Every structure is written in C-alpha cells, then in structure tokens.
TrEMBL record:
This is NADPH oxidase 5. Keywords: Calcium, Membrane, Metal-binding, Transmembrane, Transmembrane helix. It comes from the Eukaryota. Residues 28-63 form the EF-hand domain. PROSITE patterns: EF_HAND_1, EF_HAND_2. Gene3D superfamilies: EF-hand. The keyword Repeat does not apply. The chain crosses the membrane at residues 103-123. The gene is NOX5. InterPro entries: EF-hand-dom_pair, EF_Hand_1_Ca_BS, EF_hand_dom.
Length: 168
C-alpha cells in the first residue's frame, strides 16, 4: 500500500532478528516495534512511509547494526521503471529444457490423437458431418481408454514386482 502499519513493522523486525540470530522475547519485540513506530510516525497518522522508517533507523545505529541491511529493501515498494515485463514461466527456455521429455510426450500424444481423429473421420466420410465427427471422437475415446488401462496395468505390475522384491 506504500505505507507501513505497526503489524507489518513487527513482522519485519521479527524476521530481521531471526536472520541475525538474535533471540528477543515477544514483549520486548512489541516494545521495540512500538518505540520505533511511534518515533518514526511524526504526524501521528497511524502508518509510516518507507522514507520515515529509513530516517528513523538512521537515528538508531545500534538497532541498524543488529538488523540485516536488506530489511529496509523489503519495505520499499518497487519502482515502476525497475519492473521488467513478466514473461510467463512456460515461455522461458529453461522451462522447455527442464521439461523436454514431458513436452515431447505431450506433443506425440496430441499428434496421435489428432491423426486417429482425422483417420476415423476420413474412413467414415460416407455418413455425413455429424457421423464423421462422432466416429472421430469415438476413435480418440477408444485410444485414450486403452492408454489409461495399459498405464494402470503397467503401474500395477510395477507395484506387484516391487512388493515381491521387498518380501524376498
């Protein structure tokens, strides 16, 4: 939202102390949060800006040295010019390289379904458009059901053979 409320400040302080391996009781953390927040909230608005917090932390070097430097960056809203266009994850080269087997299987599977559909439609072209569509869909349904049954049988055999190996 561009401003920091006391709960957000407490969360950040707790994370910073944890990162710095500093153990602080909850009531002391609450006191630190309250003191820091009230000190930074010059206009008593109930929230502070990043600039107010930064200025206040610079006034307390003992607090700053116990906090990680990145704490202030967590609170800073991103600049609009720093935002780069977000490319969907599946359009990246790394995604395609890491999932090449799965993607190849998916392409072959889709192509096989398409070929079966077209072949069944052409074979039954004498029956009209709806009949051809029904036969094409039926051929794909037969293939997919067979594929599921073979896959289940294969998994069942693997599970059974694993059980025998464990027993013996």
């Amino acid at each position: 939202s561009g401003s920091i409320d006391p709960d957000e400040l407490r969360t950040v302080l707790k994370s910073c102390l944890h990162e710095s391996a500093i153990s602080l009781p909850e009531e002391k953390l609450d006191d630190l949060t309250l003191v820091l927040f009230e000190s930074a909230d010059k206009d008593n608005s109930g929230s502070i800006t990043f600039e107010e917090l930064k200025a206040e932390l610079e006034n307390f070097p003992e607090v700053m040295e116990n906090l990680t430097i990145s704490a202030a960056n967590w609170l800073k809203p991103p600049d609009l010019e720093q935002k780069k266009p977000h490319t969907p994850r599946y359009l990246t080269r790394a995604y395609w390289q890491n999932n090449s087997r799965k993607l190849l299987f998916l392409c072959v599977y889709t192509l096989l379904n398409l070929l079966l559909f077209v072949a069944a439609m052409l074979y039954h072209s004498y029956g009209g458009g709806w009949f051809m569509l029904a036969k094409g869909c039926g051929q794909c349904l037969n293939f997919n059901c067979t594929f599921v049954m073979v896959q289940q049988k294969y998994c069942h055999l693997l599970a059974h053979s694993d059980c025998q190996t464990v027993v013996s």
